[in-house]
Amino acid sequence: MLVLSLLAGCRAISASRGATPTPTALPTATVAPSPTLTLSPTLTTSPTPTVTLTPSPTPTPGPEAQYDRFILIVQNTQTMYVYEHGVKMRTIPVSTGLPDSEEYHTPAWEGEVGRYVGTFFSFGTYADNAWYLFYHYGSMLIHSAPYVLQDGVKVYQDLDALGARPLSHGCIRLPPEEAQWFTDWGPQGAHVIIEPLTVKL
Predict the structure, then answer these.
(1) pLDDT in tens, 19-76
(2) Residue 188 belongs to some domain of the structure
(3) The pTM is what?
(4) In terms of Cα–Cα distance, which of 57, 91, 105, 89 is closest to 186?
(5) ∠ CA 18-22-25 to the nearest 5 degrees?
């Protein structure tokens, strides 16, 4: 009963305060319109230019490609290159003639390897595996480094000049084992170019 009276009192108090209140309208939230999405104009990509590959020019083949067997002697580096059918077979250190001597320098030359001379004696030394090239104040040859015989043993001279500096009397000196290889290769008739010496060694 007490509960009822409390409820009734409660109701009675609210009713006794006056007329029923007029509900006040709550402010409505205004929703801003969604912004219109404006698209940028479509980008048109230019077509990717086609790259036209220009072939690299083919290098002009050197004389090594013109001859079945070819020998190039480069005095500036004191080196001899031996080619067969355009393929480099051997790189050999050499020593050419004394540059400050008219008689003993190695002139620039082009021609073919001549006959086999073999072992010869000149300027107090021997040399093996000699091949004739041309005549210039004497026979110009390709041959082994010079040597003297001591108790029947070959003692080679000036091996340190090979591939380093000109020291011969005009001939093309080779290390003894390379001179033997050269002879075994059989160079007779091979085309030879001897380039001039243009640097100080």
Answers:
(1) 555 555 555 555 555 555 555 555 555 566 666 666 666 566 788 889 999 999 999 9
(2) yes
(3) 0.70
(4) 89
(5) 155
